[in-house]
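Format notes (please read before filing issues)

Several people have asked whether sequences and structure tokens are stored in separate files. They are not. Every record keeps both together, in the order shown below: the sequence lines, then the token lines. Line labels are part of the format and must not be stripped during preprocessing.
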Amino acid sequence: MKKRLLPFLAVVVMVFAAMAPEAHALTPQLDIISDTYCVMDAATGQILIEKGMHKQKAPASITKILTVALALERGGNPDDRYILDYKTCHSIEAGSTHIALTEQEEISLRDALMATMIMSANDAANAVAQYSAGDMDDFIPLMNQKLQELGAKDTQFMNPNGLDQSGHYTTAYDMCLITRWAMGVPGFYDYYGALDYTMQPTNKQPQQRPFSSRHNMLLTGMKYSYEGTLGGKLGYTYDARHTIVTTVKRGEMTLICVAMDSPSTYDKYKDSIKLLDYCFENFGTLSLRAKNIQNFEVPILDNSGQRIGRVNIQAENDIPLLVSKGTEVKDLTFSFNIPESYLSGEEIAPVLTIQDQNGTQLYQGAMGYTVLQAAANGTGKPSFWQGETFVYPIKETALLALRWFGIILGALVALLFIARFFIRLHYRKVMEERRRKRLAAKKRRAAALRQQQARQRRAAAAAANSVTYGNVTYWPGTQPPQDLPPSASAGSGK
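Then the structure lines:
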């Protein structure tokens, strides 16, 4: 019976495997255990690899990335000291991570920031929120306002510490967005990449409180230490399970890796390392020069369809991309969201989208533009362009002239080599023809000489066998007259 079931079970397994989500097939060789993940290029926001990156999950303590960065962005001075209130110290779950902050305890903002990021202390995160907004509850609207500004549309935070709470959720993609923004906040790396810190005694705590990072990828000598790691944040709650955010720089690439809903503390490290290894091994940098991207000139029309101005559209800055290794500019597809004309007063928002050969979007962003309006003369018709100033593009023209000079010079050199080749070929042919003629003339002279010598030998032989009678010589083969006197002697020549 078991043997009969085996083929049936095999078919069932194959059917369910075929029904698996396509996103999971993105990196089948990596064997990722975390339920969702995302790797983003910090420079461009480009996604290199992901699975379920928009699936909403409980974040746990990676929430604290926003808490710390927002407090710093709002002008927090790490040296400021302040008194903690009751709510800050006593509104966390029993048994959750904390550093035993006490009501009316005076601490510095630096103490709270270090404890929040290194120790993941929930009471310290509350203390950061209290400092930044005056009351920790007033900090929550500020967090969600920042999320909207960042475009983290699938995220909502209900507290500054990340403890499980209804309505507190995020996604792997949104956490990449949040971390990318946070990395640009001055001072953030002082805490995001900190390995240890000692909090000095306070008015309520006579002992020092030492903090040490638990993010193994940051720590040299640990099993999961990872070269180039700049910073990171760990998280764990019952609902979220294990979460992790890590930023790594190697060469010109800085990547943000987020893995969420991982079964164990070691699985999140293994998954992060596999994802980062894959990206560093399979992607490289490619920079597009702004001047090499197509420009556009679009007319501005009034309601009657008359042209009253124009818009010059161009890329303003070079565009850095991360592409699959071996990809060249010719392999990319450029799409421009630009109409044939704009109506007067219409919003001008040209957009450039770049895709690779597989159709994966590598970049999407606004292009720069300059509006040149037409001025009206006495007839009400446009007569010249306001704001249009001709500036002789000496730099570009010089570069263009040098480029064409080089092309022409190269062509001339090539032509000279070609001419030299054919001249030498013609010269060899002429010399060969002359040599053949000399040989032929030499052969003719030799043949003529041999013929002359042969004639001379024949003449000599004939002379030796001739017969002379008086003044007449009879050569061999001729018959002298019979009545000649017998006294004439043959061959005498007389």
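For reference, the curators noted about this record: The first helix runs from residue 2 to 18. The longest strand covers residues 241-250.
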